[in-house]
């Protein structure tokens, strides 16, 4: 009976972790805009945004998303700009945006790269170790 409660608990914990994923949408209308939201649809409002210029590891722009989870910027040089958005709870997203020589966004590269939060990574590692341990123990009993 304990096993069933334990499995139910693990299922519940996994649901909580996956329900807080992020998604982004990139748009271009003279300015580059990124709309960030949690998987459930709530905007990532008032989150810290770090924007890195092409070829640089230094932060070019510090910003904060608005109440709708949107942040905009005007790229001033060609190359791949990296935008990192981080919520207060550690969830976040990273988007790489290619800007051409005329400072227009290459619309073929408007894709988002969702990242796993540290909590999600920890849960995945614990789950993998637990599953491996249970598999080893179950094979040893036969």
How would you portray this structure in words?
The chain is an alpha+beta fold and 142 residues long. Strand 1 and strand 2 form a beta hairpin. The chain has a single domain, classed as Carboxypeptidase-like, regulatory domain (Immunoglobulin-like, Sandwich), CATH 2.60.40. It has a 5-stranded antiparallel beta sheet with strand order 4-3-6-7-8, with no helix packed on it. A 3-stranded antiparallel beta sheet has the order 1-2-5, with no helix packed on it. It starts with a helix and ends with a helix. The chain is elongated and about 65 Å long. The mean pLDDT is 81. The protein contains 2 helices and 8 strands, in the order αββββββββα.
Our estimate of the beta-strand percent is 25-35%
CATH class: Mainly Beta
CATH superfamily: Carboxypeptidase-like, regulatory domain
Oligomerization category of the chains in this entry: single chain
Q: What number of structural domains do the residues give?
A: 1
Question: Concise description?
Answer:
This protein has one domain: Immunoglobulin-like (Sandwich), CATH 2.60.40.1120.
Layout: helices, strands, pairs:
Layout: H1 2-18, E1 22-28, E2 32-38, E3 48-52, E4 59-64, E5 70-73, E6 79-86, E7 92-99, E8 113-114, H2 118-140
Antiparallel strand pairs: 1-2, 2-5, 3-4, 3-6, 6-7, 7-8
Keywords:
142 residues, alpha+beta, 3-stranded antiparallel sheet, 5-stranded antiparallel sheet, 28% helix, Immunoglobulin-like, 8 strands
